[in-house]
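hey team, just a heads up i'm posting the complex here instead of the shared drive bc the drive is being weird again. everything in one block, sequence lines first with there labels, then the predicted structure for the whole assembly after. its three chains so it's a bit long, scroll down
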Amino acid sequence: VSGLLMFLSCFLLSDSHKHKDKYKEHKHKDYKRDKEKSKHGNSDYKDPSDKKYKDKEKMKHKDGSTEKNKDKHKEKRKEDKVIKKEKENGFVSPLHDIKPKKTKTQKEVTDGKKKAKKEPEEKWKWWEEERYTDGVKWKFLEHKGPVFAPPYEPLPSRVKFYYDGKPMRLSPEAEEVATFFAKMLDHEYTTKDIFRKNFFKDWRKEMTAEEKATITDLKKCNFTEMSEYFKAQSEARKAMSKEEKQKIKEENERLLQKYGYCIMDNHKERIANFRIEPPGLFRGRGDHPKMGMLKRRIRPEDIIINCSKDSKCPEPPPGTKWKEVRHDNKVTWLVSWTENIQGSIKYIMLNPSSRIKGEKDWQKYETARRLKKCVDRIRAQYREDWKSKEMRVRQRAVTDSFLLTLLALRAGNEKEEGETADTVGCCSLRVEHINLYPENEGQEYVVEFDFLGKDSIRYYNKVPVEKRVFKNLQLFMENKEPDDDLFDRLNTSILNKHLQELMDGLTAKVFRTYNASITLQQQLKELTTADENIPAKILSYNRANRAVAILCNHQRAPPKTFEKSMQNLQAKIDAKKDQLSDAKRELKSAKADAKVRKDEKTKKAVENKRKAVQRIEEQLMKLEVQATDREENKQIALGTSKLNYLDPRISVAWCKKWGIPVEKIYNKTQREKFAWAIDMADEDYEF
DNA sequence: TTCTCAACTTAGGATTGGCGGA
DNA sequence: TCCGCCAATCCTAAGTTGAGAA
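-- predicted structure starts here --
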């Protein structure tokens, strides 16, 4: 492991050690183990050479794919061969065969018809099937098209808009856009100049000639009645009766059932975002030059439908037409349209639990694991390249090292000025984003990074680097203005081409995946202690997760209610402490009592008191763990890394190894997304 | 070689709804 | 049973990547 990586781990470790020490105070051993055991891990695998599972027949939609599968499974159950180990550890590339087959889980077998509500068909284990290799994404695709935003409902006439103090009736078009602004009135950005300017410009485009002539100054517009009206409406919605709420829920469910699924290659799959984005005012992140612009309503005429030729094509709403219907099975989207703010294309795609997303995800982690094998070689190479005569090569070598060691850096594409907020990544760093300190706080060759990254989240870090890197950076900064590119001979395209040469499939973002996953694995090893109880182990997991989130700079705004909720928790802890000292006092007097009387009854009392103390201590410890966890998490978002960077098999293996129910780590949605990992990883999985 | 665009992943904030405690 | 809180879910913006046009 290179010095830089060492540094990185030192940084992380020292940090976690700190946490750990703090934590030790409330460590407690006698925690009852959660009995619930994961049901996974009993699936059998069949001979890889068996090709029967190939999805070759042309799909005749409609027919119950489930039934079909069941039969397949029955017929195959006997011949299963165990090659599980190989699959998980030796690693058969996901792109290759091995078609193990699916077996019913214990649960399915035993509680056969328990659930009256038709228990969902067996979960399809797509990861046990052959993959497409030729860029084809599916052979059959049928869906119902998108759900459009509800049409605009004009305001009741009593709700007035005032211009320059006088009530004014707006045309429906102008009124609708006005309501978008009114709904955001409480928000800070309606006070921002750019937001107001953009809004006003776009609003005027929707006005009639007369309105345009009258309304010339946003400052003279009074939206408060509208705003009040919407607030009242949302209150009313909250106050609705159970029945009304139930009705809405049912309607949503109906919509979901109808539009929320598609049929792709024999299987019913969940769609991620089947609703078209409603019109509104664009809210970019950070200092976005387009904030406040009108995001227009999407009509059927804007929509491109993608489905297979032999499917039943979705119908556009009566009286309308789709922009286009195409049958492109080299892409995964079902519906697309072009958005008017940036002119980019938006898509309706499948849920992360779908085969098409899952396979890709799995593949991503396999690529990262391959990187693990050649990381040393790559390091050796870039260290060599630091000395190169060619500036281009040196710059590349420095970015390579940044990516490998300071993984929080994204690739950093160039961005069009004036189109988006001014943010940067590795390749697009400017001179003004770093400071060099030959010496800083007792360390040599320190680089200070300070810039806005994706979503305008600030990245700030001080990192000691090797002398050569430092000298190179000095060189790159020579004779440049603050707003000049630091790596002027480099962009993401060049960088990725070079990475591709180092390893097949290697791109800048693979480093993030690799670093995140390897860090989790190593931190879990480091932090998990056998004699800890489950809450303590989960705290360790969260800390490992947190180390990754810090590395990836996954921040969040502290929740608005953070202070309060912390206080509440603290109050609970204090109350619990009082309770504890009371209980202890009682125990003491019971003991004293027992000493004098020496009868069975008092002995029993002592025992009871002792148990009470123990129980309260346990509860207290749980609360304190919770407080620690929450405090440490104040500004850190764990979700992003959990969902996108951490090989789920590491977590699953950890759960299995320590007898932690996987439900404690992954919620329902996450379990669906990572079903493949939960099914295939056993406790000795190594990333 | 550079530019543009399509397709897909990654991201944080807003909203919702379910659950535990009063 | 009601209410407040928080986790889950929804939403959609903002990245990365690579292909193909200019």
